[in-house]
């Protein structure tokens, strides 16, 4: 799965992901076509694999970004509020912002300042990204994402881009009713995606999904 969707251009990569059934929703395809991964991945941006971006972070593989968008899509309506924990390169933050345009807002939370700066700089490489940054459609903040970001809560959708050691209650608390949280969780040295829904009646359900490999959601490095 990791390699066969790779392409020679952003368009080829996204078309191959769609052809291989990794993108099924037209709105997700449209949003991913609209964000050039080369602005976010310094090496081999059109390869369907994770790439290192420094500071012990990686930009996730395109098929994982696609999977997160497809899962969260019912909650990504124009005007929606979204939280992207561990925003790293800023790629998914930007794709999510395209999906909630117009009037939406995505807050990217990152605990390493140089990565906050990289996310901002990457997003500002395109006219669409600059517009989103300037009109408040995207906001990057430095914080411990395990605590969410109460200032802009509640959120229709929350994405976590690093493997959590547990189901952080502040993230569930900051979900709207209804709302959806997509997060990798580490249990017994294995990681799985969990999709956590807060339903209309306020009840919370958890669905365990595919096995994955993400960098861990941790304390910020010292210094
Ligand atoms: N979605 C990003 C993933 C980056 S890797 C992308 O595709 O580019 C995971 C990121 O989570 C790293 O940038 C790391 O610095 C960040 N991270 C880890 N623990 C964190 C925490 N407690 N709070 C906020 N960010 C965290």
User: Mean pLDDT score, rounded?
Assistant: 96
Which sheet architecture does the biggest sheet show? Answer: 7 strands, mixed
Radius of gyration: 16 Å
What is the helix/strand order?
A: HHEEHEHEHHEEHEEE
Order of neighbouring strands in the sheet with most strands: 5-4-3-6-7-8-9
Amount of helix:
25-40%
Give the amount of beta strand, in percent: 25-35%
Q: Which ligands, by name, code or SMILES, are bound? A: S-adenosyl-L-homocysteine
The oligomeric status of these chains comes to: single chain
Structure description:
With 223 residues, this protein is an alpha/beta fold. Helices cover 28% and strands 26% of the residues. It has helices spanning 10-19, 26-33, 62-72, 91-99, 113-123, 127-135, 169-173; strands spanning 51-54, 57-59, 81-85, 105-110, 138-142, 155-160, 175-187, 190-198, 204-211. It has a 7-stranded mixed beta sheet. A two-stranded antiparallel sheet has the order 1-2. Helix 2 (26-33) crosses helix 4 (91-99). The longest helix is centred in the first third of the chain and has 11 residues, at 62-72. It is globular. It starts with 9 loop residues before the first helix and ends in a 12-residue tail after the last strand.
């Amino acid at each position: 799965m990791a390699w066969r969707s790779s392409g020679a251009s952003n368009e080829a990569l996204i078309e191959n992901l769609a052809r291989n059934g990794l993108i099924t929703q037209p709105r997700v395809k449209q949003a991913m076509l609209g964000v050039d991964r080369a602005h976010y991945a310094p090496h081999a941006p059109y390869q369907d694999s994770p790439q290192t971006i420094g500071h012990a972070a990686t930009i996730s593989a395109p098929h994982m970004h696609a999977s997160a968008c497809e899962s969260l899509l019912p909650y990504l309506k124009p005007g929606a509020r979204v939280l992207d924990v561990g925003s790293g390169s800023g790629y998914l933050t930007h794709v999510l912002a395209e999906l909630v345009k117009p009037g939406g807002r995505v807050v990217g939370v990152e605990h390493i300042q140089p990565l906050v700066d990289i996310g901002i700089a990457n997003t500002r490489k395109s006219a669409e990204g600059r517009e989103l940054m300037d009109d408040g459609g995207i906001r990057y903040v430095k914080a411990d994402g395990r605590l969410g970001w109460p200032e802009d809560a509640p959120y229709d959708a929350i994405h976590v881009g690093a493997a959590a050691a547990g189901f952080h209650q502040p993230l569930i608390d900051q979900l709207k009713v209804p709302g959806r949280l997509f997060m990798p969780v580490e249990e017994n040295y294995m990681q799985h995606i969990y999709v956590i829904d807060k339903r209309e009646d306020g009840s919370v359900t958890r669905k365990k999904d595919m096995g994955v490999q993400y960098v861990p959601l941790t304390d910020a490095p010292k210094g």
